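Two proteins follow. First one:
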Amino acid sequence: MATILKRGTRTAPRFFVKYDAGVTTDGTRVQRMKLLRGVQNVLQARQEAARVERAVGGGHDPFPGPAIVPGAARGRLEHWAKGLTNRNAASDRSMVTKHLIPPLGHMPIDQITLPVVMSWIDELAASDLSPQTQRHALGTLSRFFSWAIERGEAVMNPVKMVPPSKRPVLAIDRDQPWLEDEAKVPELVEALGSDVGLMFYLANRSGLRLGEVCGLRLGDLEFLGDGVIRVGHSYGGPLKEDKRSQGKVKWVPAPIDAEEVLKLHLKRRKLHRAKAEDLVFIPVKPPRRPRKSSWAGFRREHVHEVWDSARKAVGVSMTWYQATRHTAVSRALKAGVPLDEVSAAVGHSSPEVTGRHYAHFVRKAFAAGLRLPMQPKKVQNKT
């Protein structure tokens, strides 16, 4: 029996089919769900469901994949993805499974050439994937080929041969809103509650990412008297800038009143005998869902849930990122803080990166010597 599931929106519906794929040796019934690509209405979905039932009834796979030839890239892609240890390893494995293996996994590695990659890039561009996801997919394939070259399984990296003009272009939204009304900051701190409110305060003042403020340790706040905060974690892992998980740290400016604002919270943590390596912020209530990891701090989903309730109560219509890190950068640049200082404060790789995303805040006032007019023509006296 096949069941149709409808998802998406009214103008862009997506139909799935859920069907029995057989029974395992221990008697467990296996169910699978597949997206019906190209199906645009309920009638077509019902026809596909009937086809699936006929195929399953006849002992056939209703969604056969491409034939895998010996030495295909699929096995090596899976092996490479399984051994990833970087901070975004889970995201990279998902990218390999969803966007690399289906179009390229059935081919031998030496047959994935520049024309094949260019054709694949065209398919990505025609899909509904965002430019950022397309760039992630292309970068993941390039990293796989670098790994294959090191092991003598490939002689060149076709991704390196793709012209820059043909690569997916990341769209930058320079007109994102930011929290210009400073009176809203204390209101949001109060509405968010004691712990999340203090997290918002630090993120809004110092430009910390959500993962960075969630991952703060008590030892990181020992430098508040020097006007800085040490940042060495994103949640329970390394920083975004720490690509190779080498334990890198960065320093961000601390608000002038940080010691006073955080005094009661830090005192309460010390009463619980927390040590320097312990988290600054820990949820009081246990999570609704059991944790799959040993991470004991705040989760992104929890913070966003609390944020949505608080911003509506205060009358703010923007995301956590826009009200914190984006606001910190925008506020500093509008106040005339030099671009290189702002870039260093938020941990950007270079001032060029900051300028590219915040070009509308970069200096617009120029000396009169740079704005000289055309010399006016001399007017002859008439006699």
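Second one, unrelated to the first:
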Amino acid sequence: MIYRTWSLMRKEFIHIFRDPRSLIIMFIIPLVQLVILGYAATTDIEHLRTVVLDADKTPQSRQLIATYAASNYFTIVDYVDTQDEIRYFIDHGDARAGFVIPGGYGSDISAGRQVDIPFFIDGTDPQVSNIVFAASQSVGQSLSVKLLQQRTGIAPQKLLSIDVRPRVWYNPNMESSHFMIPGLMVIILYLFTALFTASSIVRERETGTIEQLIVTPIKPIELVVAKVFPYIFISFFDVLEVLAIGMFWFHVPVNGSLLLLLELSALFLLSSLGIGIFISSVASTQQEALLMTMGTALPTIYLSGFFFPLEAMPKWLQTLSYLIPARYAMEIMRGIILKGVGLEILWNQVVAITIFGLAIMVLASLRFKRRLD
């Protein structure tokens, strides 16, 4: 009995080690997941991109800017001349925060008068905005205490002469549902389309019917379109369902163009379809197709900014995230739904997602055609 069992076990091990795809799935993917989760699963926000409007330009105002720059929370990326420029930077995603130093700040500080510092925060990500909200006040209060302790005769009630007033844009109540629902739409578009596209084509090969289809007058492109279109329709229906529930149940406002949102969602489907077709050309069974799709799902979810802010990740992971099409789709969805911006703001993301989509589709089509041949 033991000998028979050992023989079967030995046979199974031989089968496993003769299948390089299974070996990659079993040994490499867990390591990739561990590395990504170990570095990406963090909410420690540091060096947040910040712009400054310094209307005072005095040693005191420069000291305030230096105090924010010296903290681990903020990195000053640019100086602007108007508040509209702060909104422009935040709308484009080039900055996540900005503050205004009003004229007369230096003289008011020297005289011991209280000064209000408007501090604007991108509220599309509640995890980031909550941390920045608290950090913007604590840094200002720390400098205020330091300045007033240098003087004598200051009444205790006047201890805080710098009053930082954070204002959260786009998601004033910092509700997580406003942040999660646009991201969920991207994940649904990606996972459903890629998974079902790969599985449906592999199923035809696994059952042997794809060979029967090849010998018919049907062209490969016709076969692919016929197989994937139903899943495109279902994915779009699911996205509309999530959007409707988000709007009417969770009260997520759609501040931008709904038509533009659907058009760019369709553009993102190019990438999902390409990945699904590519997986179908590699996988031999539906189980392999499922595992490969799940293997791409983790980087997509964690490196797109769906759960964890990209600013909290190491630089090398932030750079790697530019290779994830869903990153650009997240910015597009949240930009349209929460910020109400259009193509004039999102054109960089649209160009990137178009290039990714076309490249993946061409690569997948070539690979699929070779597999059919």
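SUMMARY FIELD: The mean pLDDT is 79. The two ends are 46 Å apart (CA to CA).
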